[in-house]
Specification:
The chain has 278 residues and is of the alpha/beta class. It is built from nine helices and ten strands. The relative contact order is 0.19.
């Protein structure tokens, strides 16, 4: 198995741990293949983000560089999430996981929040706030309600809620930022709203369909009118610099990608987040 290209190769010395979770067993999407994402994102990170010169490998880094030490833990099964994340959190490392379908985030969030309620920053085209049924990729936000502080949580990129989800967002008074809000108000003003909302215990869950399909075509449920890749990176950099307990990137669907654009974008997003951590 290939490792992510920013790999320190030593768990004990690492600050950040990458975990692949190649599972889509709780997805109802018509597009299948998100279980292939961890492997493909790693592969593309090595092909597109590294260079060979005089027999030596040189990494293509974020402009600000990467000072944190990164360890790629490899892939785990869905049922291994609790024990794996318990160890990583106990060892005071920041987990960045690669799915898989979005339902994986539910178990991760429950594990990360064991000692504290989280400010959940949820990037997604969909609110995933179905509460009439549980334990699938469209009920994540509802499934984690008891583990998050709804007053300090925020959804970004939402543009296609079902009526039940609209009702739940209103009922729980969740702060929702649509791509149209970003276009109208700008990153600076929107991020000021976010920082005034979120607390200190921040977890980021990033569904790649948050980004417009023109930038990220290889996702399981693409929706027009998404946020741009640059805006997504700016938000992630600012939130990472604010401080995060962990992050996941989910719903990359390599079988529907175009020239690996979405996998490459995901790999660069990981690097940008790591480079921005405090």
């Amino acid at each position: 198995m290939e490792k992510i290209c920013w790999n320190n190769s030593n768990y004990n010395d690492s600050d950040v741990v990458i975990i692949g979770i190649p599972d889509e067993s709780q997805s109802h999407a018509l597009r299948e293949g998100t279980s292939k994402a961890p492997e493909q994102i790693r592969k593309i990170s090595n092909l597109a983000d590294s260079y060979k010169r005089d027999g030596k490998k040189s990494l293509g880094l974020p402009l600000t560089g990467i000072s944190k030490k990164v360890f790629d833990y490899g892939d785990i099964a869905r049922q291994q999430i609790p024990e794996t994340f318990e160890k990583i959190i106990k060892d005071s490392k920041i987990p960045i996981s690669i799915g898989g379908d979005h339902s994986l985030s539910t178990t991760i969030i429950k594990q990360v929040s064991k000692s504290k309620k989280l400010s959940l920053v949820y990037f997604d085209a969909h609110p995933d706030f179905i509460t009439s049924t549980k334990n699938y990729y469209g009920s994540v936000f509802g499934d984690v309600l008891e583990f998050i502080d709804v007053q300090t949580s925020v959804q970004i990129g939402v543009r296609t809620p079902e009526q039940e989800e609209r009702d739940n967002l209103k009922k729980y008074q969740i702060m929702v930022i649509s791509p149209f809000d970003i276009a109208e108000k700008g990153i600076t003003k929107i991020f000021q709203q976010i920082t005034e909302t979120i607390g200190d215990n921040v977890y980021v869950s990033f569904d790649m369909d948050c980004i417009d399909p023109s930038h990220a075509p290889g996702v399981s449920v693409p929706v027009p009118f998404g946020i741009s890749s640059v805006d997504a990176i700016l938000f992630l950099k600012k939130i990472a610099n604010h401080g995060i307990l962990g992050m996941d990137i989910v719903e990359v669907c390599p079988s529907y990608d175009v020239n690996n654009r979405t996998s490459h974008l995901a790999s660069r997003m990981i690097g940008k987040v790591i480079s921005s951590l405090k």
